[in-house]
Structure formats: structure tokens, C-alpha cells
């Protein structure tokens, strides 16, 4: 269990299996009355008298599908693999318990409390997070606790077996030496231009090839799909937005944009009273209204002499620089607008925004048009989506749903898994067409949320199973394959002739390509198949060793000239040693599993 979750730990469903059921008694409330297996008597197998229920298999299958580790088209084949895995787990659990392996409640609780997957923002265990994430992985607390306990027992058993075996230092050194080994060789590639072959494909040859390779000539399971789509962006395309609404949206969008501000400041306190300062500030405001420039007015009236000499300019400001009262006035102004009197910090201010740090209105017009239109149709979109949910759930078709909602019923040609185009090519959409409810029960799918602006419902109009095609249906493809096979065989024969000549010393006019000091880990442009074959060849003794290897539409002739031991790499040596230990441990564990399987009473 734990390992399967760790393998898929890119999703919560995987991380969750590391622990569960802790702490508070609240975790055990009503849920403790339920088991993941329920009272389902549908037993599919037994291991030494202990049952494996169908629901166990279905839960594991659905978890694997949700994690994305298994493609939906492999769901049926997955069930057999899951049953085999559950049988193995049952055997290991029984063996561990017979051997006295024990996991206490306190051990489980201590593990779970420390798991960050179930912690809140303050780093404390949260029963709410615990419940939510557990439910998302398809577990109840009681069932998860028992499965976790069994999983830890199996881990202890496997770790004990792994540590009981070891490899000698000399073995590890030999493995590291082989891993860093380097080989120098020559090679030449033969293709269709290097042989003269009369390709002649007969009916008998095609029939033979077709009979041997029938799996290549199957028509996959296919469906014809109908679907309706509610698209908020398409709905927004026909909406007209007036100019004032666009400008309001622009102002709102840039409400918090940085801006260059000028001010006139008239203080009060020791030298003048508040009333006197307010009267002088009003004079300045009247001067501005009578057409005097802001710079001249600031120079005459502002007590901030430093900024007054710059026309009152305070520079570019962001929200929060001068306090709430200043922000309220300054960030309510558009470029070129002037405020009323603003009182703050023992002074009256008159503010003017001279520049906005934002794109001009005209540059944003198109984006604003789309945003405002989308907002305008949001209510209609949400209502239509709700109607789609309600009507598609109850309907036996999609045509009536499309007619009622004013939508287009889209229809596809035959599609196999993964072949959808447009919206049907988006992740998970076409998978719905092959789900049990839609494909086998004939229901409309649930409403699929493609993104914030699109909702889709589909149904299967027609379905056909995987079909073995007749030879006449694929005659051209078979003929091409037989012809390619004949050309490849001719290349292999030519390669064998050339190697025989090389071995006898007769061939000396080959234009070799050289590859020097190639290691198993070399990031070269050489075909991997060729490199792998080079390292399978025996070490040369007193001369080159020759071999051929088939590649796609070509054959390579290899001349292995020398083998050398590469430089010692401590990191590589350590890695090889770890891999050797892991492989040895796996072998020991697999040996135990094989022995348990041979002695067990398994009914399925």
C-alpha cells in the first residue's frame, strides 16, 4: 500500500498512504462503524483461508487510475495485476505475523502525528486535513489504519530480509569496474542504397506475414461521440460594451497602479490656525480653477518649498507611502485630475496626478472589452451551466438538452482512446466516453469542467469493440511491411558476407566511422541499440571482433578494437554498490514470495 502511494506521490492520493488515524478520539466517531470492505460477500479469492473481496480490487484499480499511473484503456487488464498484488501482500502479511512482527497503536500514532501531509499552516496535526486527504484517496480512517498496519509489517519483513544478505567488497568493485568500462570501435551503416534487391511480394508472403502479425492489424475499440459545450468566451463575443463602461473598467483595473503625484501643502499650527490654513488652501484651489497652472500655484502657496520649486512634484508613489487619507484622494484620481482639499498630518493638501504607471487606455481597450464582456455574461453562463447539469443528468439523449439550452450538438466520427481533437483532446475528456457509466450504461457524462470558461457534456452515440481486420482491409500496409522485411534481410545477408570477408582478412576498403572510449553512460549520438550490442561483444584478443546489429531500415557492422577500464569515479562506484544491494534484496524477497506462493492454498 505505502509503496504504491509513494510511486504516485506527485498526487495527494499517494502521499496519504504513509499514515493515518491518529490522535484525537474524534477521528474514530461514526466512521469506526464502517469498513472499506463493508459487508460485501463478493469474494474473488482466498489466501490460506483469508478472503480477498471484489471491493478491495475495485478500490485499488480506481486509486491507480486517479493517480494517473495507469492509462484508462488498461483498466480491465489492471484488475488481474491488482489481484496478483493483493495475493502477494496477503502472503507477506501472514508470514510477518506468523514470525511475530508487531506494530503497536502507539507506533502508528507517533508516525502519523509527525507527517507533514496532515499538518496545518502552524505545523500541527489537523484532523480536518487528515479526513479530507484520506477521503480524497478513497479511504475511511478505520480501513486505512488497518491497511497501514499491515503495510508497515510487510516493510519490516522486507527490510529484515534485505539486510540479511550482502555482497562482498570485491563483487562491488568488479561491478563498478564493468560499469565504467570504455570501448573503442569502428562501425559502418548499411542501408537500402548498399544492396541490390529485387523486391517481389507474393500473396503467400503477405498471408504469412499477416498471420504472424495479426496483433498489428487490429482496429482498436472506438466510439462515435456527441457533445454539447457551454463556452463563456463564445457567449461574450456578441456583447457590445459602451465606452464609459470600458473607461470605468480601465480606472478600476488601474486603481492601485503607481502614479506620479504633485501637491500643494498649506500647514497649520504655530504660525497659522487651522482656519487660516484652510482659507489659504481654498485660495490656492480657486486659483487653479481660474486657470493658473499647478506649478505656479504650488510656488505661490505651498509650504513644501522643496517640491514647490519642482512644480509640487512628489515623484512616483505607491499605496501606503503617505497614509490612508492621502491614498484615498490620490488613488481616486485619473491622470491629469486634481483633488479637493485633503487634511492630514497638520496640513491641507491639494493633489494632482500627473502620470499613471500603467498602459494607456487605448492599449488596453481590447483586453478590457473581453474582460467586461465576460463579466457581463457570467450570470447567464452560470445559469446555463446549472441547467446543463440538471437536464443532462435526467435526459436520455443530448439533442433535447442542446435544443432547450440553445446549444449546438457536436458529433464526431469514430474515435479510439486518445484520438480526440479540439476540446475532446483535452486531458481526461475522451476518457469519459470510455468510462463504465457512459460506455456501458449509456448515460450522459457528468458536466466536465475544462477551465473557468467552458463546460462540456458528452455521450456515446455508437460503440464498436476491438476488431481483427481482414487482409484485404490492410493489403497495402502488409505489402509495404513484407517489402521492408525483404530489404532488411538483404542487408543482414550483406552484413554477414562482409563480416566473413573481414574475418578472413579480405575486406579492406570499408569507410569506417570511429567511436573512441565510449562508456555505457556516454551521451553520444550513436544509436543506443548499437552501443548496447558493443558492450555485449567479447573482449578482443589479438585483433578486432566483428558483429552486426539490425537497426530501423539499416544494419550496422561493428569492429570492436579495444576495451579499457575508465577512471575511478567514487560517485559512480557508490551508485553501483547501492544498485547491487537493491537488486540482491529484490532477489531475496522475490525468492520468499515464490516459496510462499508454492506452499499457499490460494483459491481464485
What does this structure look like?
The protein has 604 residues and is of the alpha+beta class. The chain is built from 23 helices and 18 strands. Strands 5, 10, 11, 12 and 13 form a 5-stranded antiparallel sheet that branches. It has a 4-stranded antiparallel sheet with strand order 15-3-17-16. The model is unreliable at 1-41 (pLDDT under 50).
What are the key terms here?
rotamase; 604 residues; PpiD_chaperone; alpha+beta; disordered N terminus; 46% helix; isomerase; elongated; coiled coil; 4-stranded antiparallel beta sheet
Structure, briefly:
This protein has 604 residues and is α+β, with helices and mostly antiparallel strands.
Helix count, per DSSP?
Answer: 23
What class would the helix/strand composition place it in?
A: alpha+beta
Instruction: State Rg.
Output: 38 Å
Tell me the total number of β-strands. Answer: 18
What is the secondary structure topology, with strand pairs?
Layout: H1 2-7, H2 12-15, E1 43-47, E2 50-53, H3 54-67, H4 75-98, H5 105-113, H6 127-136, H7 141-164, H8 169-179, E3 181-190, H9 203-212, E4 218-219, E5 222-231, H10 232-236, H11 243-253, E6 259-267, H12 274-289, H13 294-301, H14 305-308, E7 313-317, H15 324-330, E8 338-344, E9 347-356, H16 361-376, H17 378-394, H18 399-405, E10 410-411, E11 415-416, H19 429-433, H20 436-440, E12 448-451, E13 454-464, E14 467-468, H21 475-503, E15 513-519, H22 528-534, E16 545-551, E17 554-565, H23 570-599, E18 602-603
Antiparallel strand pairs: 1-2, 1-18, 3-15, 3-17, 4-14, 5-10, 5-11, 5-13, 6-7, 6-9, 8-9, 12-13, 16-17
Helix pairs in contact: 3-4, 4-7, 7-23, 8-23, 9-21, 11-16, 12-13
Family: Belongs to the PpiD chaperone family.
Coiled coil: 474-501
Subcellular location: Cell inner membrane
